[in-house]
Amino acid sequence: MAHEDVGAPAPFAAPAKGTVVLYRGATLIDGTGGAARPATSIVVDGAHIRTVAPDGEIPVALLAEAEVVDLQGTFVVPGLIDSHQHIATPPNRPVAEAALRRQVYGGVTAIRDMADDLRHIADLARSTLVGEIPGPDIHYAALTAGPGFFDDPRTWQVSQGAVPGQVPWMQAITEETDLPLAVARSAGTYATAVKIYADLPGSLVAAITAEAHRQGLGVWAHAAVFPASPAEVIGAGVDSVSHVHLLVHEFADRALTTYKDKPPVDRDRFLAGDDPDMAELFARMRERGTVLDATNTLWEWLADDADTPGEKSRAGENAELSAALTAQAFRAGVEISTGTDYETAPGRPYPSVHDELVFLVERCGVPAVQAIRSATLVGARSMGTEDSMGTVAEGKLANFVVLREDPLADIRNLRSVVSVVKRGLRLDRAAFTSQNSPAGTAGPTTPLPEGTTSR
């Protein structure tokens, strides 16, 4: 070609294959739920992990070949995954970039975006993937719901310039819908999943799920879709269900009708965390491998943001209910991911997934090592990406977090981030100043984190 435009700079791109870095001497918590592994080396080649082995098993020749980063006295966990985010409702590029930057510098290397304006999300996903801006990998869903849902103001926010319900990323589904075409339109947005939201009967939930799976897409659903009940949603074979508090609608006082008409439920019966009917529902989830995206701390965030004492009280009650149900689900062997469905205020130093992890440990009785597994391996399973991320293992993406303090001693120590490695690129936490700074001004690590050395 006689002329080619130059592409945008990509200062956060993954290093090229053949760029070998040896991270040596850390205590590794690998995301599987197994015991911590002291004095462990991680060999990174480009964007991927080549080797994970005890320090003493690393060949001397490799020590001479690679850049060596001494992590003695530190702890390493896999990159964290927030399995429930919305970063474009409504679209606002500076706000989204600031949130993504804080997430990745806070240890989050992937998020699951649960429906947004996918015109905006697709560009952000490309930008973080190729390294134009700092941020986690973004895996996202195209939304489906019954026609009655599309007077919700949020659907207009994410369909500006078009008609909600009639766009590929937000489709109204009826019995007359050509489902193969509808799912193909969803896939055309580059979504990796279909989200099933509201106002659909169990038969349509099952039909959408079957067609999406046939076309190779995941299916992420609300735990109750109204009129589809939780048992119908789980029975349809969806891959994950969101919002643990919605599960109680399986036992509502009357039949479910629409999303806006949620019937009363005797919530007090579930607060002890040992309800036998709920136990049967959790058993079905465990047998099917349905991931529970609990979104516990959403209610604490809503309580803090409440305008009236009544709203604050209701949010607190839902937080209490969520804690009891999530604890019962964990004891039942259900896979629980760490979705949040909100982001903390811009002035906060760490993103919301850290609060969700603290809630799991302190309010739900989940051991720290299992909470970390929820935020890593189970998070990857919720997105269908466990083959490439979620644990620190050979062949997977080099996504991990270096911590100054032991998170197994106190889950809050996940906030002692020294550096983050995302697709092999090392990001120094010290380069992250505040969300009041212009998004993306800090570049990749050049100086090493305090307390580490390199050759």
DSSP, total strands:
19
CATH topology of the largest domain, by name, is TIM Barrel
- Which class best fits the helix and strand makeup? alpha/beta
Helix share, percent:
25-40%
Question: How is the main sheet built?
Answer: 10 strands, mixed
β-strand amount:
15-25%
Number of self-contained structural domains: 2
User: What's the gyration radius in Å?
Assistant: 22 Å
The CATH class of the largest domain:
Alpha Beta
Mean pLDDT figure: 94
Total helical segments: 13
CATH superfamily of the largest domain: Metal-dependent hydrolases
> Which regions contain 5 or more consecutive residues with pLDDT less than 50?
434-455
Coarse morphology? globular
What does this structure look like?
With 455 residues, the protein is of the alpha/beta class. The chain has two domains: 20-77 and 395-454, Roll (Urease, subunit C, domain 1), CATH 2.30.40; 84-383, Metal-dependent hydrolases (TIM Barrel), CATH 3.20.20. The chain has helices at 60-65, 93-105, 118-130, 153-157, 179-187, 202-214, 230-235, 276-288, 298-304, 309-331, 353-362, 368-374, 377-383, and strands spanning 20-28, 37-45, 48-54, 67-70, 75-78, 80-85, 108-113, 137-145, 166-167, 170-172, 193-196, 218-222, 240-242, 291-293, 336-337, 400-403, 417-422, 425-428, 453-454. The strands form two sheets. Strands 6, 7, 8, 9, 10, 11, 12, 13, 14 and 15 form a ten-stranded mixed β-sheet that branches. Strands 1, 2, 3, 4, 5, 16, 17, 18 and 19 form a nine-stranded mixed β-sheet that branches. Helix 5 crosses helix 6 and helix 9 (298-304) packs antiparallel against helix 10. The radius of gyration is 22 Å and the shape is globular.
